[in-house]
Specification:
With about 140 residues, the protein is α/β, with parallel strands linked by helices. About 35% of the residues lie in helices and about 20% in strands. It contains five helices and six strands. It has a six-stranded mixed β-sheet, with helices on both faces.
Length: about 140
Amino acid sequence: CKSFEKMSSRKYSAVEKYKLKDADYAIVALNSVCGAVKDVVDELRINGEKVGLLKIRLFRPFPYDDVLNALKHCKRITVMDRSESFGANPPIMSEVVNSLKNAKKINSVIFGLGGREIFEDDIKNIYYNMIKNKKQERYVGCRE
């Protein structure tokens, strides 16, 4: 990372905190879905909701301390995974649980299976279920 920073004059951290500083609720995701999540966070913030996004940029080695420091103040967290791990938590969920050492306030949703898109309304529903402390549907966007 340091050599890339020196060569490119760009610095990237292992996680990106988006409007998390005062957030009561957080969505954790990685890769391309984060753009849509940011749009939803912006819209919800306009309506007075205290929500933020933690974008995971580096999966291995997993940034346990960065995740803990970014999320420890949140009341509830939903982790969005794009893959399933049968017989265990999905990959990102598993690592976030290990980071926080408290699975009670963490929900998991799986989206995008089979290349299906996720829409902003789906992300809003994930948020509204989270704040109501309502059990999430495990799979989002699977209609068949």
